[in-house]
Amino acid sequence: MFITPIEIFDIIVMTLAIGYIFSDYLKKPLTYDVHNPVKYFSINRHSVWENTKFAAMIASPAIVLHELAHKFVAMGFGATAVLHAPYGMYLVVVILKLIKFPFIFFVGGYVSHSPLPALQSSLVSVAGPFMNFLIWFACWILVKNSLVNKKYYKILVPMGRISLFLAIFNMLPIPGFDGSHFFSALFSLL
Question: What is the pTM of this model?
Answer without folding.
Answer: 0.86
